[in-house]
């Protein structure tokens, strides 16, 4: 049961990496320093004071950068691959009591996959906001993203099963948004076939 909960925790932290890359590491580092979150062997460094200061600084820079019009969209091109890597590391750091090969396989497929899916959905949302509002609505999107990163990280650590439910809801919303976007694009390209 402990391994299952650590996998669920890892998936929750990975989803949070899809919203903001450094927020989950900052929260996990603080939780580890407080003795609340056990980290997998080799990842104890995440819970050190110097790592928490580094994650805190990186979090402030990342959150602030998403409030700068047009830079936010440029950051998405970097954040997409970075979130997959961060999601993989976040998941691997908390999945305990499993052999390394299984841990890293689960972290890559589950953690990296979930982080990439969430980040892809947020990038589409920001792109839509940019098109509709000329970038003026992107601050609202950025605020929602960092709040979602904090809430998802905290739920993953404090209530892993509730965090998993939140991740499933996020993924369903993301999937439905992509389908809706695809349908709108197809209608705009070929309006006669849908009349």
Write the layout of secondary structure elements.
Elements: H1 2-19, H2 23-33, H3 49-65, H4 71-94, H5 100-133, H6 138-158, H7 160-189
Helix pairs in contact: 1-2, 1-4, 1-5, 1-6, 1-7, 2-3, 2-6, 4-5, 5-6, 5-7, 6-7
Task: Write up what this structure looks like.
By secondary structure, the protein is mainly alpha-helical. It has one domain (2-194). 79% of the residues lie in helices and 0% in strands. The chain is globular, with a radius of gyration of 18 Å.
What keyword list fits this structure?
195 residues, mainly alpha, 79% helix
In short:
With 195 residues, the chain is mainly α. It has helices at residues 2-19, 23-33, 49-65, 71-94, 100-133, 138-158, 160-189.
């Amino acid at each position: 049961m402990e391994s299952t909960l650590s996998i669920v925790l890892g998936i929750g932290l990975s989803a949070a990496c899809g919203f903001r890359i450094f927020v989950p590491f900052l929260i996990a580092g603080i939780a580890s320093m407080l003795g609340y979150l056990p980290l997998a062997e080799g990842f104890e460094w995440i819970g050190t004071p110097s790592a928490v200061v580094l994650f805190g600084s990186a979090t402030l820079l990342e959150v602030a950068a998403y409030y700068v019009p047009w830079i936010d969209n440029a950051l998405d091109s970097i954040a997409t691959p970075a979130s997959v890597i961060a999601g993989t590391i976040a998941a691997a750091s908390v999945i305990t009591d499993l052999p390394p090969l299984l841990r890293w396989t689960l972290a890559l497929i589950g953690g990296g996959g979930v982080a990439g899916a969430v980040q892809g959905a947020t990038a589409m949302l920001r792109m839509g906001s940019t098109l509709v509002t000329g970038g003026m609505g992107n601050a609202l999107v950025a605020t929602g993203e960092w709040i979602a990163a904090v809430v998802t990280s905290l739920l993953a650590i404090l209530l892993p099963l509730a965090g998993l439910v939140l991740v499933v809801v996020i993924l369903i919303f993301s999937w439905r948004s992509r389908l809706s976007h695809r349908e709108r694009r197809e209608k705009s390209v070929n309006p006669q076939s849908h009349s």
